């Protein structure tokens, strides 16, 4: 780039000024070799100047390259906030820059096409990657067994599907482009300076600090994800138990606990790096003389590489939940029950053995009994295995041994959809039903109104 400039809001500039007046202004200028501090561009339909002027800090003899540089400002935004603010004007910027460059200089067309391709590729590929990760994560969580939710705090799941997924959606693809650009700029500067000085020592120092930072920063990101899940879990439990907390006047204790968890999470992110020595003025002068552009390029290269390395931890955390062992197949094509199954309702349990995890003791050990169809059977007593038996009927917990046979069919041999769609359960916690009576009796709309009326008359 042969001159430096600042554009406070390139879209505002291109939108508020007419292209013909802008070209006429520079074409009629007679002081092409003089340096100016600023040029106020006025709108032909308004009498007021633009609040933030377009500033040139070098010779106007290079003004014919202005359209390409306007687009470069859009492509070189160094923060996600700025990128989000300018996302809606990408198309206008690129089209305007292309036609201006067509008029002023033909050889800039290819560069505009390259920038257009890079921008579109970043948006499209980043969106597709995020959608793919989200669909795999959602499918894995929906297919996870009930034992996973029994042993995993709710806040840990919420942390992954909120903050980690937000980083993947909004930050990673932009940061990846910035990291590649900064690495290319730093490598180019090193190649140019290699003819005059040897950059070996500089590279070794940078690589040393980079490796030292990676080893600590990535672990800090893991600690941050773990401690943040405690905050989300405590908040979810406080909201669900708000009535009980207020009834026992424990608001202050829960609020203090919440502050402690937030402090623990923030403490895991505190990090201080202090220089261990000083440099002589001669060394500083040489560094400023020979590496004025190199140090900036290296700074951005390392900063973006460290940022992308920290963001990748979010992908790692999502990947852990994308490979959760799933439940059995929903539909077994070769072994589907009849359409009217179960017709009698006979349940036969043969030597049923159930444990919740492989390394734990049996909860139900060798249970055998028969429930005849049409009978009402009650299981009472604390710790008698009521919830475990109900979970076994729906295969929420897979039996470690034995069988459950319903009307002559072993429920472990059929798909989960065929099994759970034929059974019904009434939860023990009372709830207020939302929606119509028909929706609560038949949420999947699989029965006619006449069939629902018949059920209501029987009840």
Produce the secondary structure layout.
Elements: E1 5-6, H1 10-16, H2 19-27, E2 55-56, H3 66-75, H4 80-86, H5 90-104, H6 109-142, H7 146-151, H8 154-170, H9 172-193, H10 200-240, H11 242-247, H12 251-267, H13 281-290, H14 292-322, E3 347-354, E4 364-371, H15 386-393, E5 401-406, E6 409-410, H16 416-420, H17 437-441, H18 449-458
Antiparallel strand pairs: 1-2, 3-4, 3-5, 5-6
Helix pairs in contact: 3-5, 3-6, 5-6, 6-8, 6-9, 6-14, 8-10, 8-14, 9-14, 10-12, 10-14, 13-14
Jot down its keywords:
ABC_transporter-like_ATP-bd; 18 helices; elongated; transmembrane helix; disordered N terminus; ABC transporter transmembrane region fold; ATP hydrolysis activity; ATP-binding; two-stranded antiparallel ribbon; ABC transmembrane type-1 domain-containing protein; Rossmann fold; alpha+beta; 459 residues; single chain
What does this structure look like?
One of its GO terms (molecular function) is ABC-type transporter activity. This protein has a 4-stranded antiparallel beta sheet, covered by helices on one side. It has 459 residues and is an alpha+beta fold. A hairpin with a 2-residue loop joins strand 5 (401-406) and strand 6. The protein has 3 domains: 1-128, no CATH class; 144-272 and 284-326, Up-down Bundle (ABC transporter transmembrane region fold), CATH 1.20.1560.10; 347-429, 3-Layer(aba) Sandwich (Rossmann fold). Helix content is 57%, strand content 6%. The longest helix is centred in the middle third of the chain and has 41 residues, at 200-240. It is built from 18 helices and 6 strands. Helix 6 packs antiparallel against helix 8, helix 8 (154-170) packs across helix 14 (292-322) and helix 10 packs antiparallel against helix 12 (251-267). The chain is elongated.
